[in-house]
Each structure stands twice: as structure tokens, then as C-alpha cells.
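Running low. Any example?
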Amino acid sequence: MAHHPNQSNHRFESVDKCASIGREKHTVVADMDGTLLRGRSSFPYFALVAFEVGGILRLLFLLLASPIAGVLYYFVSESAGIQVLIFATLAGMKVADIESVARAVLPKFYSTDLHPESWRVFSSCGRRCVLTANPRIMVEAFLKEYLGADKVIGTEISTYKGRATGFVLRTGVLVGRNKATALRETFGDASPEIGLGDRRTDFPFMSLCQESYMVPPKPEVDPVSRDKLPKPIVFHDGRLVQKPTPLMALLTILWIPVGFLLACLRIAAGALLPMPLVYYAFWALGVRVTVKGTPPPPAQKSLGQTGVLFICSHRSLLDPIFLSTALGRPIAAVTYSVSRLSEFLSPIKTVRLTRDRATDAAMIKKLLEEGDLVICPEGTTCREPFLLRFSALFAELTDQIVPVAMANRMSMFHGTTARGWKGMDPFYFFMNPSPAYEVTFLSKLPHELTCSAGKSSHEVANYIQRVIAASLSYECTSFTRKDKYRALAGNDGTVAEKPKLKRNQVMGC
């Protein structure tokens, strides 16, 4: 590989000096932490893997080991410090579990810290390579799927019978001259046009590039905004809302025992108190419920009125309960794939879909004859400001439809999961210090827009999706339950013992 004398003094220019026009045929080689990402510490991402795979005890172990890693990092070597983090995080974990977190959890957090100048240069090149000290198994899914990296070269972890040993292979942690060696092995005599790094240990590989640029430490720049990301992250999993810095990880560990007791109290209040009192009990216990719009009055059976069908956006399995809280009366809900524990704790009537179209249609009609009913036609939850495709079955069954825009806020834990046990969803939601729900009742669907007036069920479903999305400032998508579970859990989200349902029939809570 050619050596470039103009790079030998290691006086590299800042990345903002690098031109990004006409780079379509060029190759860029970049470091990750502190270069492609603004943050220089990889602790938060190790902490995410530790918590999502190993739980609170593994997170505690990592937190206790991090001071040792820091001492080794600064007084022995960068490699020694990283090896401690790798061992504390990954030792004993199933490789499949690590890969699952890397695919479903980490990209959301990585994408919120993308350095704008590094991304400007990196994205302008036709061939993109990343050299990183991070375990390749943790970063490859994000770098290839979301940043378009062609090659990811990272630290290779040692495994035994499908589990990580906590050690690395003989090649060692990819820092310093190990990066230069890896670059030579990858490109041979060809010299990449651009090298991007942020610290002295990146100099060896940067010196082998035709042009090299430094990313200043702790840059005062904002990350790449959501709308400018190369690929929007619609689906993501994991329980933690905030990036677990050492301080945030400590607070999370200390809060979980307190939060669990508080969650039990909040769930008990919702399950045992009369529905008209639940609203006030939630407020007393720190759960904020905001109601907007004017809900319709209860149906009067004596006058032959059938129930109203509330069509909600789906943020968590608690949507029907908070709808009932806002109305001050229990509303029956149609569900799918809800745990038995959640059904047992529910203060409202829940009815499971059979996934047979005729059977479900008859069941929904019968429920509407008995009173009001709530359905979440997205079929599954979505955390981001997007609405998934609405199932159209509900539109064929009644004209008494009221759209409801549901939004919630969590500061510490997500109350949904695609990979974990759904029975813990309500507990995690109520474990937040001050969780909030906003219930917005929109105008009843006009008769001229119903199926009775000649509209197709798909037209009705799409219209209601657009109305709710506009109310929330969300974006409509054509993604479905299957798309979500394929992205996050590697399956289509169906329950094994039940027959498969056609794509346009998926619905429920």
C-alpha cells in the first residue's frame, strides 16, 4: 500500500475541510465512536446490550466494571479498557441474543448521535468502510443497513457453543496498528482516498489513506436530524427510553425496585377502583391523562341504538384502558396476542380475535349490539411518529365510527416489546416516574364517508388513518404487523397455534 509523505507528520485537517463533491468513485474509511458518531464513549451501547439481554444484574455488573475499564483505558491501553467492557457485557450471552439487540435496539440510539460533518463525507463516497474497536457483532447491522457501509471491520469476539466467552480473538481489539493491519489486509496495495478518525490511535490507519481528516473531540454540533437520516427508523425494540450513560444506568438500577412497587400500586388502582374514579387515582399516583375533544354519549339500548366503534391509533396495550379512563366508563376491547397476565389484570372486558374473518366479524357485531367497543386496526404498536396500515374489516361492520388519536409519553421505560414477554408491558409503562397519555376524540365519521354510502372498506380505513395521523402530526405508512415483527423479532408476529390470517385482516390490540 502506498505511503503518503504529506500525511506522515499526522497534522490532519479538520473534517469540515474535506470536499464531498465528486466522491462517487472514492473509498472512505472511517472510525465509529467520535467520528461517525459524535459521542466518543461506547459505554451506553454496551449498557443497552447488558440490560436488554442480561437484565438489571448484568447492567449493574457492567457499571461496577466500568471504573476498572476507565483506569486501564487511560493508564494501560485503549485495548485493555475495551476488553473489560466486552467481558463484563458479553460473557455467557447467546450470540443470537446479541445479534437480536444489535438489529432491533441499537440502531435507534446510534442514529440519534450521527455526526453531520462525518456523515456528509461518508455518504458522498461510493465505497464505504468502517474500522472500529467495537465488537463487529454489535455494530454491523446498523452500519450496513442504515448507513450503507460496504465493509465493517471490528473486534471479533470469541464464542463457544453459541455463546460469547467474553474474550476476543487473537487478532485483539481493533485499535492502533491493528486497524492499519486490517486496512492493509482489506485493500491490499490500493490506497483508500479518504480516512476519517478522531484520536491518536487512529493515526496509523489514517496515514495509509490518500487524504485524512480529524473529527474534533466533543464537537459543538447537533446530530443529523431525523428527517435527514439516510433511512428512517420506524421500528425499534428494547425497554430503555434514554441512552444509558453511566449516571443514567445508575439511576435506572436504583429506580427499578421503587418503580416496580409504584407500578403495582398504579395497576391495582386501575383494576380495582370504579372506572369513574380511575382518572383521579391516576393523577394522584403521578399518571397524567389529558383528554381532548368531545366523546359521544353512551348508546341507549332502550332506543335500539348500537354501540359506537372507537378506532384508536396503537401506542401500547393500555390504549383501551386509557380510553375508558377518559370516558369514565369501561369500554370492551378486541385484542390479539395479549398475555394472559394482562388479560387477568385488565379492568375492562377483552375479547380475543380468532383470526377467522367471518367469526371475528360476527363477534364484533355482537359486541357492538351490547355497547361501545374499541379496536386498534394497526394490529400492533409503533413507537415512532408513524401510523401503520389500518385493517379494513371494522369499516364493514358499522357506520358509527369515532376516530381517537392516542399518544403517550415515557421518560425511562418503553411499555411495549416485540422480543420480550408482553406480560411485563403494563408494568414497564407504569414504572416510569410520571407516564402520560393524551386521548383526543375526533369527529364522528360522516355518513357520506361510510361503507353504507358506497365507500369501500379500504377507503374508509385509509381515510381514518389519515385523519388520526393529521391530528398527531404523524406520517401514514403501509407497514403492517408482519413487517414490524420481521424487522425486530425475525418472525411474522403470529401466534403459532392459530391459523395464519390474510395480510389485510390483521387487527387488534
About this structure: Residues 257-505 form one domain.
